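TICKET: design request
STATUS: open
ATTACHED STRUCTURE:
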């Protein structure tokens, strides 16, 4: 499972939402046309469709699931700790992006 989709999947499982959020796996090497046309025009994974609205970008999906579904909260209540979490998330997002860019042969995507 791609790393970006993994964090949405982990969120779903951590919150015990296996029966509420259905997984629709797609082959990234042979992406079906319907995904781009009808679900997520950016054609990236993951995306979440809920109440006829599509949320893309894994961090937004993670936050959406955390805020709109039941289950244990992913974020601490303390605002200072929440801020720290946001910082960590932003950092890991940059880090993973840089690793991917490097693996794809890009040279200028260091943190
Ligand atoms: N910032 C996006 C990145 C998502 C992403 O790049 N997903 C990859 C799979 S790991 C993808 O679908 N790539 C297709 C493409 O770039 O065309 C997120 O966090 O969801």
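STATUS: resolved
RESOLUTION: sequence designed for all positions
ATTACHED SEQUENCE:
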């Amino acid at each position: 499972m791609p790393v970006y989709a993994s964090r949405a999947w982990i969120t779903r499982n951590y919150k015990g939402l296996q029966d509420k959020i259905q997984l629709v796996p797609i082959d990234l090497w042979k992406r079906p046309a319907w995904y781009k046309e009808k679900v997520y025009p950016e054609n990236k994974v993951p995306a979440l469709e809920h109440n006829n609205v599509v949320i893309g970008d894994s961090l937004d999906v993670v936050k959406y699931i955390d805020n709109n579904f039941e289950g244990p909260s992913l974020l601490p209540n303390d605002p200072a700790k929440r801020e720290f979490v946001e910082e960590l998330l932003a950092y890991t997002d940059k880090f993973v992006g840089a690793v991917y860019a490097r693996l794809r042969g890009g040279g200028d995507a260091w943190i």
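CLOSING REMARK: The chain has a mean pLDDT of 91. Residues 79-103 form the longest helix (25 residues).
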